[in-house]
From TrEMBL:
The keyword Metal-binding does not apply. Residues 1-17 form the signal peptide. InterPro entries: BURP, BURP_dom. Residues 101-335 form the BURP domain. SMART domains: BURP. It holds the Pfam family BURP. This is BURP domain-containing protein. It comes from the Eukaryota. Keywords: Signal. PANTHER family: BURP DOMAIN PROTEIN USPL1-LIKE (PTHR31236), BURP DOMAIN-CONTAINING PROTEIN 10 (PTHR31236:SF7). It comes from Urochloa decumbens.
Length: 338
């Protein structure tokens, strides 16, 4: 099975400093680092988006921990539970079930994004926020498929059972059919391929990238007993819906994003204040949060069995579907629309 570039062998390199240690490739006596360095990534960004800031969710991957620290920071995602034990036929059932469970809390109608509205705030945890980026040529050489799972595991050995489950889950998610009619999707393994897919999906290379505020903790927010009041709402894109791409960081040893476009959308920056503020002792939720929210406007192709619709007493197509971005998500929009 060919899992690397022609005649390329993967070797384990050790180097003091941790983050730059890792796999390297040897091609015709030339050694190329496996990971892309922060300076290389910054140079690429400035070459395609001069004078535009790098979103914090991308910067997190530039300061990636390594070794045991990286493994300790890995979190289980709702897609990863026993997913490696599922048959191919059962995988889609599990995938849809996971979405259905998540949607009960994570989805909101657009009407709540009005100053004075009060909600129980749920923002999913950021997954693999510190996984390092690959060089694009290395990333493109890895066949991201469950059919090559054994080879991929070998490339990142040693791999714990928990990490193996997460890796299978991520690859399986990348292979699933589109969840929504008209959805465009791709799993990207380099900054260049993420930008490339976004440009293709949006029909322009003149893009702006956004991430949610650092107010949102990596572990997300779950406030079943504490309510938040919407203090302010700012439209990032015009009130007229526009096309965007959202890329979700997935659980994998290296940076891998699940990018998809379910358009049209409206994007908001929402400032929320927890009821009780700082007066609540030992609260695990932040007193003030500024987070990005994506609203999918055309929902006619959404799953009609989602409890979201039952809760609203509506059917797909009768209301928008909104969700907050995690700390690890990246949102892309045409520069002309922001």
């Amino acid at each position: 099975m060919c899992i690397v570039l022609f005649l390329v062998s993967f070797l384990v390199a050790t180097a003091e400093g941790g983050r730059d240690a890792g796999l390297v490739t040897r091609v015709k006596e030339t050694t190329v680092p496996y990971y892309a360095s922060p300076s290389e990534l910054n140079a690429y960004w400035q070459s395609v988006f001069p004078n535009r800031p790098i979103p914090s969710s991308l910067l997190d991957h530039l300061s990636a921990p390594s070794g045991n620290k990286m493994k300790d920071m890995e979190k289980e995602h709702y897609w990863s539970v026993y997913s490696d034990r599922l048959t191919e036929g059962d995988a889609k059932i599990f995938h849809n079930w996971a979405h259905r469970i998540a949607s009960e809390k994570l989805l909101y109608p657009e009407t709540v994004f009005t100053a004075g509205s009060k909600i129980n705030l749920y923002i999913d945890r950021a997954v693999a926020l510190h996984s390092p980026y690959l060089h694009r040529d290395i990333a493109d050489s890895i066949p991201m498929s469950t059919k090559n799972f054994t080879d991929i595991i070998a490339m990142f050995a040693p791999v714990s059972p928990s990490m193996a489950r997460d890796m299978w889950s991520t690859l399986s998610s990348c292979e699933h059919p589109r969840e929504v009619a008209g959805e465009q999707k791709a799993c990207t393994t380099s900054l260049e391929s993420m930008k490339g897919f976004s440009a293709l999906a949006l029909g322009t290379g003149d893009l702006r990238a956004f991430s949610t505020s650092l107010d949102v903790p990596e572990e997300g927010i779950s406030s079943p007993s504490q309510r938040y009041e919407v203090a302010a709402v700012r439209a990032i894109t015009p009130r007229v819906a526009t096309n965007t791409v959202t890329c979700h960081s997935m659980s994998f040893p290296v940076a891998l994003f699940y990018c998809h476009a379910v358009n049209p959308t409206r994007i908001y920056e929402v400032t929320l204040k927890r009821e009780g503020g700082d007066s609540i002792p030992e609260s695990r939720t932040p007193a003030m949060v500024q987070a990005l929210a994506v609203c999918h406007v055309n929902t006619s192709g959404f799953d009609p069995t989602l409890r979201y619709w039952v809760k609203l007493g509506l059917k797909p197509g009768e209301a928008s579907v909104c969700h907050f971005l995690t700390r690890g998500d990246v949102l892309w929009a045409p520069a002309s629309a922001t």
